[in-house]
Write a structure and sequence with these properties.
The chain is of the alpha/beta class. The chain has helices spanning 6-11, 43-62, 74-87, 104-122, 131-148, 170-179, 207-226, 237-243, 262-265, 267-274, 284-288; strands spanning 16-19, 31-35, 38-41, 67-70, 90-92, 160-164, 183-187, 198-201. Helix 3 runs parallel beside helix 7 (207-226) and helix 4 (104-122) packs across helix 5 (131-148).
Length: 301
Amino acid sequence: MAVVTMKNLLESGVHFGHQVKRWDPRMKKYIFAERNGIHIIDLQKTIQAIKDAYDAVRKTVAGGKTVLFVGTKKQAQQAVQKEAERCGMFYINNRWLGGMLTNFSTIKKSLLRLKKLEKMEVDGTFENLTKKEISSLAKERIKLQKNLGGIKEMKELPGILFIIDTRKEAIAVAEAKRQGVPIIAVVDTNCNPDGIDYPIPGNDDAIRAITLFTQIIANAVVEADNEVGLKIIETLGDEEDEMGGLMSDASVKEEDMEIDIEKYTTEEAYRAAKADEIVDEDDEEGQTQIHLDVDKVYKDE
């Protein structure tokens, strides 16, 4: 059984990039086409990138190392926590604290403090304290839990990082590079793929796309742990034939396609895929003025 199919990617809106004016030229090799002011990501390369990342995670976990899921943007928080917990790995989904990798010895002190506060809460220590002291300690515990709860049991640096949106997690990327920790990252058309060990070109704004990527990485961890499970398809096989060479041949006529691309390329589909974007204060115009006719995506001009 395949871990991911072309249809899965299309339905999740993975192929929708940002507006052309917001692109990073270093992403050019991952862009399939530009239609009506929108960049379309080459899903052929996305599938190959997923395969490489999947294999890297399997080897890392099989070697006894851990995976750290990182996604602090609102769209990614829930998926990152859910999938990391499902596969028994660590995660950061609220805020990346500076020095989390480069100054891990200090972070470990905070983790010990969190465990101590949790122990105090259940062993009766709070019963001997005043209400003000209990309130203060409770607030401290909540703050530590919010920022570090996902790595509470992490005793050493992770074997590999999985990151959603390298622009937002620039500090995490820099620290991982400095510590020599391999990086798997979902990179949209406005990101810089350079320096990322396993870049996965795809939409990093839509909840459905983010959930799909995190599920795939979590599946790789589960497979490595159980030595069974799903495998990445080596080729598209029959599915590529059904797609009529959609991604590799831009000149294929619509009537030759057996899969109805219209439902994946309408303005409604684009809006749905990008509806979860959070508007940046310094780029509000680029995010909000999306009134595009993308009916001709994947068609000849």
